[in-house]
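Q: How would the structure tokens look for this protein?
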Amino acid sequence: MAAFGAPAHAQALDPSDYIYPVEGVAGLYSANFGEMRPGHFHAGIDIKTDGVEGKPLVAVADGYVSRLSIAPGGYGRAIYLTLRNGTTAVYGHLQRFRDDIEEYLRAERRRQRRNSLDLSFGPEQWPVKQGDRIGYSGNSGSSSGPHLHFEIRDTPTQRVRNVVREGIVRPTDDIPPRILRVHYVEVDTLQGIPVHGPEASYSVVRDADGRYRLTREEPVPTGPRGYFIAEVTDRRNGVGNTFGVWRVTASMDGEPYFEYRMDGFTFDLSRCCDAVSCYPMQRRSRNEVIRLAQLEGAPNLFYTVMRERGLVRVAEGSTHRIRIEVEDDCGNRSQLEFSIRGTAPTLHPAEVVDSLDIPLYADRMSVLRYGTEAVARIPAGALHESLFVRPERTQVAEKLHGVVFFSPAYRFLGPDTPLRQAAVVSIEAQVPREYHLRATLAARTSSGGWVPAGGTYSNGAVNAVTRSTGDLAVVADTLPPTIRPLFTEGADLSKAASIRLRVGDNFSGIAAWTMTIDGEWVPSERYPMRGTLVHEFDTPPQRRRHTIRLSVRDAAGNIARYEGSFVR
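A: Here is the predicted structure in token form.
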């Protein structure tokens, strides 16, 4: 099969159109564009804000505020600027917006009586000039420390762009990527379905800056057909964080046969990260584990060179030379070269696949059953690769505080099988009436714990639309959330900017909350990474006693209530 060329991309960006999005910082970074994370590519860059919140954010170019959102997860407080040059700038995890926007949102939240908002605007309401202040950096949403998440998207398609590679942001970086390990997997097919052998792993050492070799001297044995996996990482000057790589290429005997490149993507392709990576290894690694082959579900977009889907064919007894090169988005490169020698096949699919295993084809809808009590419907396109499976059932021995199990655990797909689209799962269970509204599915984690997987109980079964794989069981969450004020009863908060409470939940997670002060609904924001709920005071102190009431509901419908007082 001939190599295909690079897919068509949008017109290159002009770095001179943009200025830096945040003022008063050292220009250091904690994450780069396109990093592989379980379930998604990282859609932007993370700019360090020197460990503090409140750094001024500015419009990178002329345009207007087209969207504002406030949510407990994801980007938290986020602002979107539609720019005149055809792109959209996204700023995430803000502490607050600029004053006039903040006042507008405060009024809108009170009018709608909603803590979370997602609002869109036309060009006339919030026009901005390059350099105008739009807000302040923070730590809201799914953020584990103060920073700014920053993106540039093509406005018509919302395709995210690699702002470092395109020169809009220029980190200080002269450190080549690191190649940590290389793995080889022999592959064959049975009934048109790929069957993979076990990974053979090889250690790598660095000879010089950017040059690596295997620790073994003899050639790597390879079967008649297989592929390599590269475990890699990157660093930047001035920080201890690790980063993803921009490009990985592979050649055999000087002929390129594979190239992965991260220039951009649309959000419908973000979950294809699990196909580009070697997912079973990626979910257990802090590095990037890139499969130097193309699965069925991995779009051509990410591969600028591809021969025979990245498979390496080697005749028994023949010797060849493999070269793997890794490049970061600042142009630093590392390379690894080693020899391979063909061997007789060690993988025999008919011996690996049991006669009771069921073939699932990625391009077809499939129905899996365990007896009559459990069924999973896997839509076409949900699997990144066709595979063989066998539904299983095991008894649950674990005890979870506040969680009652009502079924055995059922497994339709292994935990190392990611889903691009959700499956529809139904598991029968005898659930007492008092638990009907609290019943849901739980999924076993890789560490042996359990997390909610969604679903509701009706007609004797929990039905869920879920991407959770591995062991699934019917449970009921019986405990309400917890509420603990971060102030003493009757405390004088006249000099405080906010009132804060700690909230948490044992299992299903907090779904909604309502706060009132002196009987009036007030907006409050939840910071799940810190476990706090905060109301920012927006009226001057009156030096009198106030009553605060808070109601918090978890996803299972359990409700906790708190009532207290403070002086302000």
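The CA atoms of residues 109 and 115 lie 6 Å apart.

The two ends are 74 Å apart (CA to CA).

Upvote if useful.
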